[in-house]
Amino acid sequence: MTAIAGSSQAALQASHSTSAADWTPTSWRTRPALQMPIYPDATVLASAEARLRRYPPLVFAGEARKLKSALAKVANGEAFLLQGGDCAESFAECSPANITNKLKILLQMSLVLIHGAKRPVIRVGRFAGQYAKPRSSATEKRGDVELPSYFGDLVNRADFTPEARRADPAALLAGYTHAALTLNFIRSLSAAGFADLHHPEYWDLTFISREDLPASLRAEYGTMIERLGAALRFMEALGEQTVDELTRVEFFTSHEGLNLFYESAQTRQVPRRTGWYCLTAHMPWIGERTRDLGGAHVEFFRGIRNTVGVKVGPAMDPKELVELCRVLDPDNEPGKLVVITRIGAGKVHDKLPPLVDAVKAAGRRVLWVTDPMHGNGQTLASGTKTRSFDDILAEIERSFDVHDACGTWLGGVHFELTGEDVTECIGGADNILDAQLDD
């Protein structure tokens, strides 16, 4: 595996064309590639890539264009983006219950947002492709044994053995299969009326009925569901045409486009359209660790017609961000580029305004989204990694404050979330303590 390197001023000087004429789905191979696996057998890898190129697309170019149009409205303040899902998907968790629970969470959160913000909500899931994980170190050492790090099921396996940690091209094909199974189930649920907002009571999460759940919490949850259902029925009684649109919920997919062998093999041209589409997801994104201007990931993503996201942390230089926007969105197209800031609650007021002001001054039409998860991690004395719910909430609130002060629109939130019965964050309304993280 290649090691991580951060962005640098030298990268700002990298010559990056914005012309489509010198781009191909494989031109990224001429650039330094961070976080990319090294496969021991190039012939086996090439065979896997060839098979992926022959497979049907996971998503459709028309769907990607529809999302881009919807996100142009979000950037204009006419709607709001809710993006969320697992930190990383695993093949073993590709089951009806896991998929259904994630959809329920997104549905319920989006309906609360619609009710409170009085705006349509675009739902984009971190699913059907979030199988690769960036790592701070290319290797992991246990005792005297050092092996490649686990980079997600799309690359290798978690077991600490040489065989499991070897990058396996067959995992690329398994990733495609599990993404296709997930998408097929989601589309089947939607077609069968699962997402019909007339029946919010059907979205009850399985752990809401657990016997040891406090009665007050169960009652509060039930009251919220009833209030939302009553509001929908009231709108229908008034003859609001928008209610019918609300009942036809759509889900779009996203994941970090980390493994470019996988992404480029599913990138193709479509009939009656110019340009190339990456058809592994509607909205792939570039991570904070791979956004180097001179790197392979920026080279790949600059050439596709999808909406593209890019994660931006507190170390980002404002001039570099403006150049990144220019490279990834040369036509300054509404809905094309989503800048997802992951600053950290304690740094938002200091680090975010210069970035927002620079992009605004350059006239770049980006969609600003906050990711309050990745800048607020902490490691407890026990070694457990967690986040404080209060820090998550604070980063969201402070990000809204910054955009209000800068005269810009914060158009969305990007969450890691799960519908499973687990405790992962401390704090919050119930003041979850460190010792309760095993619950």
Structural features, described:
The protein is α/β, with parallel strands linked by helices and 439 residues long. It has helices spanning 9-12, 42-54, 61-75, 96-117, 162-165, 170-191, 215-237, 242-246, 260-265, 296-301, 318-328, 348-361, 389-406; strands at residues 80-85, 121-126, 139-142, 145-148, 252-256, 267-268, 277-278, 283-286, 308-312, 337-341, 367-370, 377-379, 385-388, 410-416, 425-426. The strands form 4 sheets. An 8-stranded parallel beta barrel has the order 1-2-5-8-9-10-11-14, surrounded by 4 helices. A 3-stranded mixed sheet has the order 12-13-15. The chain has a two-stranded antiparallel ribbon with strand order 3-4. Helix 12 links the parallel strand 10 (337-341) and strand 11. Helix 2 (42-54) packs parallel to helix 6 and helix 11 (318-328) crosses helix 12 (348-361). The longest helix is centred in the middle third of the chain and has 23 residues, at 215-237. The model is unreliable at 1-15 (pLDDT under 50).
